[in-house]
Design goal:
The complex is a heterodimer of chains A (122) and B (429). Chain A is built from 6 helices and 5 strands. With 122 residues, chain A is of the alpha+beta class. The longest helix of chain B is centred in the first third of the chain and has 21 residues. The chains are: A alpha+beta (122), B alpha+beta (429).
């Protein structure tokens, strides 16, 4: 897959979901995949490195309630509830290690694929 | 325990803390904050800078900036549980309006600590308690201080107790058969609900309580709570009667003026605050429903105000806001409410004003704001405003829709070149 097709803005949900763990780890931005119940299923190496969280402590945990409380609002969490088809990029501020950090989020969900994704570009 | 793990534990503690914690400098630039704080701040900030506390809260609590600036001691508590009323605009109908409590502590010359907590449910309970309290007070307090009467649906006095004499100077025997409204001389044109209107509502809802001026036999006025309760007859054919309880109470404004001003007005400008505005709106809406009166609103925003703050500094901008408030409140009718809703955004509530009257006032406000001039080191500072008018009727009786419509027209005025009032027709887009 070319670099263009796998960039933060252009990668498709289908391609992302079809990737193996190593390929997802190699992406230059954070990737978090979770089920409809928000339990985290996949957490890539980039995100683990930038957030300082060990994937082992994140996987199996409800994402918005336990990992990313600062996304648990109508701008992020609620949109996954409300919109079965979702592909949106929003400017955001994360509180990484308690520091306000400007970031861009890409929210991805579609009817045919059970896993949903948040991409995080810092 | 190693250092690593204690730091990790501290981080986890801060991440999970169910209260928003923020540390910032004197200008509001945030150094550290936990996710709970960001969860409250981000939706409020909208397109504004979420990494500055004052900028993020500019639309909902513009007073925080001036409260922090006005706090002289080197350290101490600037405010404790200061309430920020979040929901005033459209959307989220039927939900409990969100209220945040903010505590701001000055740790040093350039270091502030803030906490944010959601107290919406608590505020709902407080209101409920206050209502219950008013009821119990009405029933239990100082029973002798109550004049109790029975009247017919026409307002004619059927009976009155001896306390009626003490309170009003009228002997019960002299007033039986007379109309209560005539005896009390209350139904003068003004803000109070007429007795016959109150009877209609009491007939529908079972009861109605209001406060207003009443007149004694010697012509002196006194402030009075008037409770009208429909008596149940059990027989639908028998005409209903109403119990009336009159209670001589201190005027709330007179008794608690300072506290009231503190709770209802904006710290910087002295205009009404968001909370007071939203309460006045709800009251006007209820009255409009009961009495079929028009209600209008004007949304007002100063033009290019950010540039004023950027080039002349916040103190000059603050002076300008105060002057604008001064000239606008001077033009308002007695029942009008002029409120600061955000940084440079104001709202005017006009009970009993129809669209034409509101448009005329908006034009006056616009013209008067244009004449405001503030002296700065860089010369005279002028400002203009864009305004939008709407009536509750156009908004189908919904407060949210009224605010949204006035806002839409305000932005139409901005698009049309600023320094103008948007006419209702041009918002068709």
């Amino acid at each position: 897959m070319s670099e263009i097709e796998s960039s933060f803005e252009t990668i498709t949900l289908r391609n992302l979901d079809a990737m193996n763990e190593q390929a997802r780890d190699a992406l230059p931005y954070g990737v978090v995949g979770f089920a409809a119940d928000t339990i985290v299923q996949t957490y890539n190496a980039t995100e683990a490195r930038l957030s300082g969280l060990d994937p082992a402590t994140v996987i199996g945990v409800p994402f918005f309630e336990a990992v990313a409380q600062c996304m648990n609002n109508f701008m992020v969490a609620q949109r996954f509830e409300d919109e079965p088809e979702l592909d949106a990029i929003i400017p955001y501020v994360l509180t990484l290690r308690m520091r306000p950090t400007k970031a861009r989020l890409r929210l991805l969900a579609t009817a045919g694929i059970t896993r949903r994704y948040v991409l995080i570009e810092r | 325990m190693t250092d690593m793990s204690s730091e990790q534990e501290l981080l986890e503690f801060l991440y999970a803390c169910p209260v928003g914690l923020i540390e910032c400098d004197a200008a509001g630039e945030i150094g550290m904050m936990n996710p709970h704080a960001m969860q409250h701040l981000l939706p409020l900030a909208g397109a504004r800078n979420a990494s500055n506390l004052f900028a993020a809260l500019e639309q909902h609590a513009p007073e925080l900036r001036s409260m922090a600036a006005a706090f002289v001691p080197a350290s101490g508590r600037i405010c404790d549980g200061h309430r920020i009323f979040v929901e005033l605009g459209p959307g989220r109908q039927g939900m409990v309006p969100k209220v945040l409590a903010c505590t701001l502590v000055k740790l040093g010359p350039d270091r502030l600590m803030a906490t944010l907590a959601d107290v919406s449910q608590q505020v709902v309970q407080e209101n409920r308690l206050r209502q219950a309290d008013a009821w119990f007070a009405t029933v239990l307090d100082d029973v002798d201080g109550y004049a109790a009467l029975t009247i017919t649906p026409d307002g004619e006095i059927a009976s009155a107790n001896s306390c009626f004499l003490n309170q009003t100077g009228h002997a019960p025997a002299d007033v039986i058969g007379h109309n209560l409204a005539d005896v009390l001389g209350t139904d003068v044109p003004g803000d109070d609900m007429r007795l016959d209107e109150q009877l209609v509502i009491a007939g529908r809802d079972g009861w109605h309580l209001q406060e207003g001026w009443q007149q004694r036999a010697d012509g002196k006025r006194f402030w009075c709570q008037r409770l009208v309760v429909a008596q149940s007859t059990g027989d639908p054919l028998k005409p209903r009667r109403f119990s009336v309880v009159l209670r001589d109470v201190p005027r709330p404004e007179a008794a608690t003026g300072d506290l009231r001003r503190l709770l209802t007005s904006d710290h910087l400008t002295g205009a009404a605050n968001r909370r007071h505005f939203s309460q006045a709106m709800a009251k006007a809406q209820a009255r409009s429903r009961d009495r079929h009166e028009p209600v209008s609103m004007i949304a007002l925003d100063l033009d290019h105000f950010k540039a004023v703050n950027d080039s002349h500094g916040h103190p000059a901008g603050d002076t300008l806001l105060c002057r604008v408030t001064e000239v606008c409140t001077a033009l308002l009718p007695p029942s009008g409410v002029f409120a600061r809703l955000g940084g440079e955004e104001f709202g005017v509530l006009l009970p009993r004003y129809d669209h034409a009257q509101a448009m005329a006032l908006a034009e006056q406000l616009r013209a008067e704001i244009e004449t405001v001039a503030v002296e700065t080191s860089g010369g005279l500072l002028h400002v203009t405003a864009s305004l939008g008018c709407a009536t509750l009727e156009e908004a189908d009786g919904s407060i949210d829709a009224l605010i949204a419509l006035a806002d839409r027209r305000l932005y139409a005025a901005k698009r049309a070149g600023r320094n103008q009032v948007c006419d209702s027709q041009s918002d068709a887009t």
